């Protein structure tokens, strides 16, 4: 049975960076709901037709349909990957309960683990205001360590600053995080599925801690 890993944390905690590193190191499948919704909308089957209609109308995809999309790709990845990292999902308690029900039906509920990358708001604001993104491969940099020519070291694209990486917007995003994600933290803590990591550290030590947990969870027998 596979590992299902959920990364929680406020904006700027490094979830995207750590997700990419974990997928590369352990051959995990990245489940990012925004990317998957856009991807499924380009396919040719009934679920794709429904999702495409919602996206073209500029509406939000309902929780049940998001689960259908997630499970659609989880099923596709079942044979090729030893685990998945759920990036940006679940986003609320309804989605968390739906995911738990789905995994319970598959007999895999005990293979779900959650890591909280904990970060103070002041640190998040400082990090995100200095963040630069590669628009092509999505690699993340900081102004303190970007290449001299301002281009991505991987694909050579010119790095950019996201429009929402301003202090006012970051603080609003942090408030949304408190309202929607903190209930998830309590939900998973009461189930004994959550591990907290201090994200106010350099990237490499955080990854080493994460990698240690992932090795343990990938090799442990089903409960």
- The coarse silhouette is globular
Mean of all residue-level pLDDT scores: 89
Structural class: alpha/beta
CATH top-level class of the domain at 3-120 and 194-219? Alpha Beta
Gyration radius from CA atoms, angstroms = 18 Å
Please work out how many helical segments DSSP would assign: 9
Main beta sheet, described? 5 strands, parallel
CATH architecture identity of the domain at 3-120 and 194-219: 3-Layer(aba) Sandwich
Strand arrangement across the biggest beta sheet: 2-3-1-4-7
- Please report the distance between the alpha carbons of the first and last residues: 11 Å
Number of strands: 7
* SS strand fraction: 5-15%
Kindly report the name of the CATH homologous superfamily of the domain at 3-120 and 194-219: P-loop containing nucleotide triphosphate hydrolases
Low-confidence stretches: none
Helix content bin: 40-55%
Written overview of the protein:
There is one protein chain. By secondary structure, the protein is an alpha/beta fold. The protein has a domain at 3-120 and 194-219: P-loop containing nucleotide triphosphate hydrolases (Rossmann fold, 3-Layer(aba) Sandwich). 48% of the residues lie in helices and 15% in strands. The protein contains nine helices and seven strands, in the order βαβαααβαβαββααβα. The chain has helices at residues 15-26, 33-40, 46-56, 63-77, 93-105, 121-129, 167-180, 182-190, 203-219; strands at 3-8, 29-32, 83-87, 112-118, 131-133, 140-142, 194-198. The protein has a five-stranded parallel sheet, sandwiched between helices. α1 crosses α9. The radius of gyration is 18 Å and the shape is globular. It starts with a strand and ends with a helix.
